[in-house]
What does this fold into?
Amino acid sequence: MSDYILAPIRPGDRRAQAAMDALLAQEGIARDRNLSYSVGLFDEDGGMVATGSIFANTLRCMAVSGAHRGEGLMAEIVSHLVQVQLERGNTHLFLYTKCESARFFAPLGFYEIARVADRLVFMENRRDGFARYVKGLAAQLGESDVPAAALVMNANPFTNGHAALLARAARENARVVLFVLSEDCSLVPWADRLAMVKAAASAYDNVTVVPSGSYMISAATFPSYFLKDDETVTHTHALLDAALFARIAAALHITKRYVGEEPFSAATRAYNAALMETLPPAGVELCVMPRAEQDGRAISASTVRQLIHDGRMEDVRPLVPQTTWDYLTENGQHIVERIQKSADVVHH
It folds into this structure.
C-alpha cells in the first residue's frame, strides 16, 4: 500500500466530484453516466492522484495522474474496487480500457476477451469466462447440425414490432435463438422482460429464449467515457458487439442475425450499418426487417412507455401482443407505476 489516503467519493461531495472530473479529463476521460460507486486516492494536501468507479459488475473510469505513474496506484484502485464488488456479491467482473492501457490490467488478474483496434479492449477477471459462457449456451440449446438464426432484444417492453421480427425469423428458419439482454437497467425489470418474451415465444416450437449474459452489451451501459464522440461510441459498440457475436455464432452454428430497421434513432441506424459491415465477413448474414407499423407509424418500445407514462393504457393495447397486454394488466402494476414515476421514458 502507498502512503496515499484511499477514500470513497460521495455523491454529495462537490469538491471530490470536481477533483475526480478534473483528473479524468486530464487523462482524456469523461465521467461515465453509469456509476454506482467511486473512490479516490489523495495525497497529504488533499489532491487526488488516482480514481476509479464501478457500475453493476464492471470497473470504470479508472485513471492515475501522469505525475504519479509508476507508483503502483492503479493496482490499489483495482484491488479496492474488486473488494467492493465482492462485498456486493459480484464475483465475475469486467472492464473496458484503452488499447494502450490493457497491459496494465493483465498483472491485476484481468484477461482480454475482445478488442476494437485502436479504440477499446474488453476484459474480464476469469481466464476461461467466455469459453464457459459459450459452453453453457450450447448446453441450453442442445447439439444440432441445423443452422440457426438469432435475435438480440431488450424488449422494454415486448411490442408488436418485436413480435413481427420474431415471427419472421421463426418462419424463415428451422431454429431461432432469441437473446434477451440481461442488464437490469431498463424501466421494465429484467425478470419481467424475460417473462414477456418467453410468453410470446411459446407460440413457436423452433424458438429458444436465453439470457444474453454479460457478453452482449446494451447501448444503455456501453462505456463512452474515453471515446471522443457519439458517432465513435456507436461504431465502437457495434464493432465490439459484432466481434463477440461472431464468436458466439461460430460456436452455436448461428448463420443469421435479424434486426429491425430504425426510423427514429440515428445512433441505432449507424449501429445496424456497422453490423452490416462486420458480420457478413464473419459468416453471419444480417437480415434487416422494416419496422411493423400501427396507423402508419413505426411501433417502438419508447412510444409504448410514453403512453404508459401518460396513463393512456388503452392506446398501448394495439401496439403490443396479447401476451404483453396480459402481463402488464395482470402482473405488471409495478411496471406501470415505475414508468409513470420516471422522468425519462424515451431511452433504454
About this structure: The CA atoms of residues 28 and 172 lie 47 Å apart. The domain at 5-93 is CATH 3.40.630.30 (Aminopeptidase). The radius of gyration is 22 Å. The mean pLDDT is 91.
